[in-house]
Each structure stands twice: as structure tokens, then as C-alpha cells.
Amino acid sequence: MHGRDKDQLRTEHLLDGAYDAIRDHDLDGAAGRLEDALAVDFDCPDVLTAMKYVNFWRERERQIIGIGHAFERGQYLLDQWPIFDRFVRRIGSPSEPCLQAVRRYVFGSALASFSALLSDAEQADPQLLLRIGRCHKGLGAYDRAVRYLEAAAAERPDDAEVTAELADAYALINEVAAAKAFFREAFFLDPQRVHLEVLESQMIRALIDKVAETGLEGSELLEWLPVYGVLFGVLTVRRELRSIEYGKLKQSIYALERELREGRSQRETIEPRLINRYLWLIDHYVATGEDTGKVDEVLLKLRALNERIYRQYTN
Question: Which structural domain, as residue segments, surrounds residue 53?
């Protein structure tokens, strides 16, 4: 065997050992193996990338030492994941094996923190259930994630954050109809409470990317997502509203229309929220077999509010 071949095998062996150490929550051990790998092949891209990933989390691990409460430790790890995701995209050329090992380290560590609290709790806190579900989702245990998120949603049925996370988990187990229904529900409840950075399913990521291509971002993007979700044929699962829901929907439409007339709120966020409610009202009328005149009345309001969206919806 040539010397170069031996070096390559040695480097690969050390890399595999580093990935195992990361999965075992031993970042210092991983760093040691990567330093040995650099001594063998200083220019190996996978080694250099893995070292950057490990150093990122070693810095965070030092911060965790000073966090006394288990819930706060777990939350800190979850909060750092979107930051790490942006870091990975910024340095480019991601290493998938190392990313998977880091994912197991981060979400496994967070799960250990949250699970310790769950075993001590007489009655599970929905916020704790939500985070345990998020950890299982991050670990790829989607069925288990669904169970915890369903439990959280049962306690907090009107919580947009929980509902969106449950929708995401449904999408990941290929329960497409449920995913579409719950995503639409979450954005109806409160778009600003939906945390896009924690959503992983291809269904919602593709929609987010497509809407972002229009130039929308931030709070406006969140408000327009459910509208474009309908227009693009993604959030297509409809349901008949209960009488109390119908009354609340009508009240919220009147309130938003008044806000627009009086200019008391930013049109950039109020307009898409009102359009989304018009679409819900139309779906309700269709589902209940109401007279077409009621549907036409809402369509006229939609046209007056935004001609472009009206044409996209009716064509």
C-alpha cells in the first residue's frame, strides 16, 4: 500500500472516530482525533470542516457549564441550533456525516435536560412537551415527536407555535393531509408565533423558499405564507368552522377592515392577515353549502383589497 493510501485510510479512521465521539457527547475527544487527522492531512476538507463544527459547539459547551437549570440548558442548545445552521451555510461545503453527528449531540443533550424534568413533573407542562417533541424531531424519531407534540397540542389547542410544530412532524411521517391542515391552522391562529427556523419538512421549507423569492421577509413573510400557501396549492385542506369559530372569524374580519380604514396598523401585515381570513370564510361557505351570493360578496371584498391576489385565486 502506498504512503498516500495509508494516510487517507488513517485520516478516514480518525474522522470516523471523531464523529463517534461527537455522538457520544465527547467534544474534547472529537477535537483530539481531528487534530491527529490534521497532522496526517492538513488540507483534508472534511477534517477542516469538522474542526470548525466542533469548535463552534465546544464554545457553547463552556457556556452551558454556567447554566444551572436543566430547562434553561436544554433551551440554550435549541436556541443555538439555528445559529449553527447559519454558520454551516456561511462557511459552505457542509460535511453531512459530521452534521448528523452534531445533530445527535445537540438534540440528544437537550432531550436529556428536558426529559429529566418530565420524570419529576406531576403534570407535564405543554411547553416541556413541545421541546421534547422538538428534540425527538431533531433526532429523526418522528413518530415519537408526534406523540409528544400531540400531547402538547391537547393542552394548548390555540397555540400557533405548538400547532406548527405538530404540523411539521406530521409532514415528516408523511401524514400530508394532517400536516396541511395544521400548518394552515397555525398561521390562522397567529403567524407571528410560528418559528420558521425550527420547521424542517420539505413541504413547508419549499413554501417558505418560494414566498421568500417574492422579496418578502420577516413579519411580512409570516403573514403572507398562508395566503401563498393557498395560491400555490400547498395549504389546501379545508374544514367547516364551528359556530363559535365562525362568529370569531367574522368579528376579526370586521376588526381588521376597520384597522385598515382608520390606518391604525401597518398595512403590510394587516392586509395579508385579512386576505387569509377572507379565504377561510370562503372555504367555510363552500363547505357548508351556503348561497353563492355570500361567496361572491367575499370575493368582491378580496378584489377591492388586492386585485392581484384576487386574480391569482380565481384563475
Answer: 1-109
Cβ count near 265 (within 10 Å):
13
3-state secondary structure 281-298: HHHHHHHCCCCHHHHHHH
CB 210: neighbour CB atoms within 10 A? 14
Cβ atoms within 10 Å, residue 52: 15
Question: What span, in angstroms and rounded, lies between the C-alpha atoms of 301 and 286?
Answer: 17
Please say whether the beta carbons of 185 and 194 come within 8 A.
no
Query: Does residue 191 lie within any of the structural domains?
Result: no
Instruction: Give a yes or no: residue 151 inside a domain.
Output: no
- Mean pLDDT, all residues of the chain: 93
109, 138, 160 - which closes a domain: 109
Q: Secondary structure of the chain: what % helix, strand, coil (to 5)? A: 80, 0, 20
Single-letter amino acid, residue 282: I
Mean pLDDT for 248-258 is: 95
Give residue-wise pLDDT tens across range 127-158. 999 999 999 999 999 999 999 999 999 999 99
Q: Is residue 259 part of a domain?
A: yes
CA distances from 49 to 5, 25, 92 (A): 21, 18, 9
pLDDT per residue over 63-100, tens digit each?
998 898 999 999 999 999 999 999 999 999 899 999 99
Say if CB 111 and CB 135 are below 8 A apart: yes
Write down which residue in 67, 85, 109 finishes a domain. Answer: 109
Q: How many CB atoms lie within 10 A of CB 108?
A: 16
Q: What pLDDT shows up at residue 164?
A: 98
234 within domain boundaries: no
pTM: 0.91
Instruction: Give the relative orientation of helices 160-172 and 142-155 as an angle to the nearest 10 degrees.
Output: 150
The per-residue pLDDT for range 20-33, each reduced to its tens digit, is: 999 999 999 999 99
**Residues shown for the chain:** 315
How many separate domains does the chain show? 2
